[in-house]
TrEMBL record:
Entry-linked Pfam families: DYW_deaminase, E_motif, PPR
Family to which the UniProt record says this protein belongs: Belongs to the PPR family. PCMP-H subfamily.
Gene: LOC120249923
Entry keyword annotation includes Transferase: no
PPR repeats by residue range: 90-120, 121-155, 219-253, 291-321, 322-352
Any one GO BP annotation for this protein: RNA modification
GO molecular function annotations of the record: RNA binding; zinc ion binding
Record protein name field: Pentatricopeptide repeat-containing protein At3g26782, mitochondrial-like
Length: 628
DNA sequence: CTAGGGTTAG
């Protein structure tokens, strides 16, 4: 301390500055204003090295620089300095710490700083709400907002911009809009753009659209927001319309717009491989294909639209690739059941990049889809041994999947019991899924009990368990599960299948009568079912509706959306065309079997994407090897 | 003199 004062005096009298701290502060502020966080930190360290004591004005911009650099250790150092220098408690320093910890990934530390503050202003509350938004805690964000209002703190623009992304219930959205109007912020462009997304998240695409239409000077964010909104609503045609509308207004898309369009095509059930190719051409025409993120999402788009070949072509032509690029391609091979290719690519990748936990999910799930026990174990073990990555629940889930599909249910169970972390719903879900292929009442019950606690709102789990009981002839138990589901107000997701024919996509639900060709479809279907029966197909009525007679069950199987879509595809495409089907749920077991037979008797390839993976049916076989 | 906010690939 004495030494510091001596140096301070020297600085005071050597002509460099009258107020050493103030001049450092000024330099730091200049660096901060020019957007040079590394320089800010460097200046601060030099200031410390020269023993000039920082004050309350020095620290906030430096803490902010740590946040921008995502440099947690520097940020923690600053926090320590603040405490040691006696700067704390200081409202502004604490506010900057909240944001810094959040940006550096430490939500709990943000929360701790916030909790321990004696005095909080609108910035403190807004920053904490922002931290909740960044760390996926929407409920807490809304709670904080209510509390803040109760404490009579007036929200402002940043408060709303932080809170809006947390809203996904229309009641909350409407209430928030009332606050926004009250603060006269409803004409703010940023706020309006965010509101478009908010209503789309609430499932109110109509409101989102009206809000969007009401924005008179739309900027790039507005257009991207609307594109994302239509993507969320799975309205792919509308997404493309927005793009055209945007181009007509002479607004040039940037790479983020393009990412939105590509993502829409990847996610939508109503887009096609043809449209994927159209979008790819659009991307090339606008010279975005060398953008790393754009290239990577093009790979993903082709994977999701069923063309591994095109995906690989994009991958090979990229001038720059990173871990995400490789991971996308690896998981692409996995989704299409090409486990060996995925492994090969993974081994190749290791020459260039150090794998992270997500690449391991890609490669492990590729192994599980392809039934590669040996390769899967090797990868799983190498995670910790070679790369020091601690397996997370999703990695365990892949392993349970891998063991379970292969019929090693006992091992799967033991594996779960030996997990060092608590199994989550993905792990139990894998076990339940395994019991579907290799029926086992005891294990299914075990998995189900945990699942109904952890994930009680997921209709797929109930249906799966009920199907397992049915397949074991335990009709009462199956009905009990259906009743439980009803009592808990869990609604079965309506299944549908989409088939691509030429330029268009056609959607079918079970027993569909909406298609103009319906009569013809059912006639062709009856003929086709007779043909595959001659080939040895036996309907599996476990997958039919309950509480009906056997014969009706069989008929009800015939009208599953998958089969209708396939028949429609067969009827309306050239004999050398693949039939491309997209089912929103998992493909039904009976439809899976039927598809194999259909591919044989018609000598057509059927490419079927379900909610889990791709099935390539050809000549009586499926690429999943019935591991699904 | 200092703090909080928009989209961004697996």
């Amino acid at each position: 301390m004495v030494f510091q004062r001596v140096v301070g005096f020297r600085a005071l009298y050597n002509g460099s500055s009258r107020e050493p701290c103030a001049s450092w502060n000024l330099a730091i502020r200049r660096a901060a204003d020019t957007g040079a966080p590394a320089r800010v930190l460097e200046l601060y360290r030099r200031m410390r090295a020269e023993n000039v004591p920082p004050d309350g004005h020095t620290l906030p911009p430096v803490i902010k620089a740590c946040a921008q650099l995502r440099d947690l250790s520097a940020g923690t150092e600053l926090h320590r300095d603040a405490a040691q220098l006696g700067v704390l408690p200081n409202l502004i320093v604490s506010n900057s710490l909240i944001s810094m910890y959040s940006k550096c990934g430490c939500f709990d530390l943000s929360n701790k700083v916030f909790d321990e503050m004696r005095e909080r202003n609108v910035v403190s509350w807004s920053s904490m709400i922002g931290a909740c938004a960044q760390h996926g805690r929407p409920t807490m964000a809304l709670f904080l907002f209510k509390k803040m209002i109760l404490e009579r703190i007036r929200p402002n623009r940043p408060t709303f911009l932080n809170l809006i992304p947390c809203v996904s219930q229309v009641e909350d959205a409407d209430e928030l809009i009332r606050f926004i109007v009250e603060e006269c912020l409803d004409s703010d462009l940023f706020i309006k753009n965010a509101a478009v997304l908010m209503y789309s998240r609430c499932g109110r695409i109509g409101i989102a659209r009206r809000l969007f239409d009401g924005i008179e000077n739309k900027d790039l964010f507005s257009w991207s927001a609307m594109i994302e909104a239509f993507t969320n609503a799975d309205m792919f045609d509308e997404t493309l319309k927005v793009l055209r509308q945007m181009m007509a207004q002479c607004v040039d898309p940037d790479y983020v717009t393009v990412l939105g369009i590509i993502g829409a095509c990847s996610k939508s059930t109503l887009s096609s491989l043809r449209q994927a190719k159209f979008i790819h051409r659009f991307v090339v025409r606008h010279s975005f294909e060398q953008n790393l993120m754009v290239g990577t999402s093009l790979i993903d788009m082709y994977v999701k639209r069923g063309s591994l070949e095109s995906a690989r072509r994009v991958f090979d032509q990229m001038q720059e690739r990173n871990l995400v690029t490789w991971s996308t391609m690896i998981s692409g091979y996995g989704m299409h059941g090409k486990g060996e290719d995925a492994l090969e690519l993974f081994y190749h990748m290791k020459h260039f990049f150090r794998p992270d936990h997500i690449v391991f999910v890609s490669v492990l799930s590729a192994c599980s889809h392809a039934g590669l026990i040996e390769g899967g174990w090797q990868c799983f073990n190498s995670m910790t041994r070679e790369f020091g990555i601690v397996p997370r629940a999703e990695h365990y889930a892949c392993m349970v999947d891998l063991l379970g599909r292969a019929g090693k249910l006992k091992e799967a169970r033991e594996f779960i019991e030996q997990m060092p972390i608590k199994p989550d719903s993905s792990v139990w879900g894998s076990l339940l899924g395994a019991c579907r292929i290799h029926p086992n009442v005891e294990l299914a019950g075990l998995a189900a009990r945990s699942l109904f606690e952890l994930d009680s709102k997921n209709p797929g789990r109930y249906i799966c368990l009920s199907n397992i009981y049915t397949s074991l002839g335990k009709i009462d138990e199956a009905n009990q599960i259906r009743n439980l589901m009803r009592r808990r107000g869990v609604k079965k997701t309506d299944g549908y299948s989409v088939v691509e024919v030429k330029n268009k996509v056609y959607k079918f639900v079970v027993g569909d009568q909406m298609n103009p060709q319906s009569k013809l479809i059912y006639r062709e279907l009856a003929i086709l079912m007779d043909r595959i029966r001659e080939e040895g197909y036996v309907p599996n009525t476990n997958f039919a509706l309950h509480d009906v007679e056997e014969e009706t069950k069989e008929t009800s199987l015939y009208v599953h959306s998958e089969k209708l879509a396939i028949v429609f595809g067969l009827m309306n495409s050239a004999p050398d065309c693949d039939i491309r089907i997209h089912k929103n749920l998992r493909v039904c077991g009976d439809c899976h079997t039927a598809s194999k037979f259909i591919s044989k008797v018609t000598q057509r390839r059927i490419v079927m994407r379900d909610s889990h993976r791709f099935h390539h049916f050809s000549n009586g076989m499926c690429s999943c090897g019935d591991y699904w």
